[in-house]
Specification:
Helix content is 31%, strand content 29%. The protein contains 3 helices and 5 strands; from the N terminus they run E-E-E-H-E-E-H-H. The chain has 2 domains: 38 residues; 83 residues, GMP Synthetase, Chain A, domain 3 (2-Layer Sandwich).
Length: 134
Amino acid sequence: MPIQARLHRAHGALTTLSNGRHAWSADVDETLGSDDLAPDPHDLLDSALAACTSLTLELYIRRRKLAVTDLRVEISHTESKTEDGRVRYALQRNLHIEGDISADDRARLLEIANKCPIHRLLEGEISVATALAD
């Protein structure tokens, strides 16, 4: 099922999102006229990479039975304009891995992080087609 977004104008810009099985919310900052009741869309984009990385690494850790005791993924971003006026969105991902694992295992976990599906998607070419629905 596609992701659906429904704006709740009585609450500023609060938006409920759903994929038919789960629901979550998005909002904008108070400086933009909302109540800041949920993450903004940039946080949601960044969180998609954080979640995918964490889950991808967890599946690998389980399969290899690595002695990882804690895993945290932090994502931050910067935005800038290119010379031709386009927006450059740069993501920084930091992995915090605790446990009794070798340097080789740590290096392999870094490789695996770079293969998570959202990472691959974000590094690929993305196109967006928009249409008015009836």
